[in-house]
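Hi there,

I know you've been waiting on this one. I reran it after we fixed the sequence typo, so this is the corrected version. Both the input and the resulting structure follow.
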Amino acid sequence: MAQEPYIGHDTTPPDFVTMKPCDVWRTRITKLDAYQDFEFEWHDDILYRSHEGADVPIKDIWQVEIVSVSTGELKRVVRSFDTRDEAEALAAQITDQSHALSVADFMDVYLVDW
């Protein structure tokens, strides 16, 4: 049996019921510079790193993140990639789902919270 609304009370649902995930979260791609492992050389009694110059090899890492629309706070790092194209493809997929899924379903799929 459906419950009748109280007289004098607003019967429109609260915002969180009608919201889409895109109203709460957005995706962001962040580029990180990560130091690659140094190469070590083994000897009988010591382990040392060979010095091939002052340059440190750097590898770019692209992270797909979900952040709060209102505060910009990082909510979750979804995945890291070696290329920007892969990161952009996943970010586009998440953005599409943020328009299609309910807030509860998006929270379940991407393990984000308020």
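Quick highlight: The longest strand covers residues 25-35.

Best,
R. S.
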